[in-house]
User: What shape does this take?
Amino acid sequence: MNWNFHVLRGLARLTFAQQLILLALVPATAATLAAIAVLTRQHLDNLTELMRANAQTVALQVATAAQAPLVRMDRRILQRTAQSGTYQPHVQQVQIWSDDGEIVANSETVDRVRGEGLQVVVPIVSEEGKQSGKVMVEMSLDAVQHARRSVWLNVVLVLAISLVGVGLAGWWAARRISEPIRALGKAVDRLGAGEAASVAIEGTSEVRHLQHGFNQAARALAESHRLLQSRISEATAELARKNQQLEVASQAKTRLLAAASHDLRQPLHALTLFSDGLANGETDPVRLQRIGHIRECVDSLDRLFSELLNLSQLDAGVLQPQWADFPLDQLFDEISRNFRPVAEQQGLRLVARKTDLWVRCDYVMLSRILNNLVSNSLRHTIEGGVLIGARRRGRGVRIDVVDTGVGIAVQHQARVFEEFYQVEGTGRQAARGQRGMGLGLATVQRLADLLNTRVELTSRPHKGTCVRVLVRSAPAALPALDAAPTVGAIEEEASLEQLRILVIDDERTILEGLTVVLTNWGAEVMAAQTRAEALALADEWDQPPDVVVSDLLLQGGDNGLDVIAALERHPRGIGPGTARLLVTGETKPDRLREVASAGITVLYKPVSPRVLRQAIQAQRAAALLNADA
Assistant: This one.
């Protein structure tokens, strides 16, 4: 079986012409050999019979001559008679036997080499008709052997001539058949390469029919290719136009969102500061309730702007993971502190289960993911609560945020992580007429992509939702973080009494709001709207301020980074002991990258008084450490 398989594989490697020639030679060779074998056998058999007949004739002649001497038992005459038989051509030996089998005469040739022989025995019959002895004649078969050698020589010659003739005939036939086919094959290759191809009409009628059909098919294919190329070119141009329109629309949307976000953040930031100023020292319950309503509106707007800012930071690429090992329970405690008052205000429970698991992740990014998930769950839960827990899964840790909220229908579950996609308002946000922007879960997905992890969601309408975040685990033997990298974790321990603060902002309302809030906290405030005013204050002060709080974008295309740099170059300006803090409502990606590369802490408008106070305290403490170093 293997031998046959190898033979077939070998034949398959031959060209079509070689296979045709081989197809002609093999039968011709077999037929020639068979015919020659039959004819040669017949010729040699005839020659052998002829030699037997000759031997029979010689034996009869010797038997006739030996009748009388054998009766008299004259051995001398019998010997001469036997010798006379050896004189005949091809006779090697003649023996005369008596009736009882005795050899009475024996004659052998001595003038030629003995070879293979053919023996014939003839009886000697007396005149009375009785057998008186026998004659044995042995004929040489050299002639037969010589004839056999001559025949084989002729066989080889005839076979060679016939094979050459058949091979030439097969080559001519194969060439006549294979050349058009080879030309067709080359034309097909050119056609496959996208070139124009055609073949000459020649050869047998069948081949001519095939060539004619190929030329027609090639022309039809070329026409189809031309039409397809034309359509592809038109579709490509149309797609390019659509892409350009989409790019222009996307850029316009980004510019619109950035401009709207910046312009709206300014008065919102001022509103935040003035609402805190109004609440300071107020004892009238009615006014405090109204101020509380104002703060609720401000918080709602703050949440919407924070979603836009998070997305802008991701688009700008300013967020990069800072990998660290930390205990997950520390993050759970922070989330519990931040959201437990919100949950209790809504009559809900927030449970953060204790865990001894450690993870390797970016603390800020993971905190933002979980904060978004918990905030989203609280907004969509009417009764019950939200549970945060973690468990080990293989080499990783799975963090679950489970709520008993309204749930998400199956047709929406695959799209809730898309930007600006919103399900019809349900739960508390519908009851209060509040709607998000559909960016919370989109931000979660984008942050998860940055962390090279995945977020899984399962939900049942009217039953609740579970969102799982998979992160890498870390060994628990490592020391805990010295401090959480979030401003919200800083306790208000230090006082702002007698702290000199320079505030720079081109919006007079924001400047007045900051002055009111900081003054209420006991700080000594210096205010400037432009670079010139800030430098004029530097010319007059006895000592530089302890903290500089500056807006990023100022009048005339100036910015807070340049103003701070000018104050650093001023002879009586700020030094290492002065804390620096930027406050901005900018969301353009290029601006965000510029701020991120400056190395100065940034707060994004609107900034709540609590966050502003914590940031000032943290930056003041860091500046004092740098000055002592």
Observations:
- The longest strand covers residues 464-474.
- Residues 429-438, 478-494 have pLDDT under 50 and may be disordered.
- The CA atoms of residues 386 and 403 lie 4 Å apart.
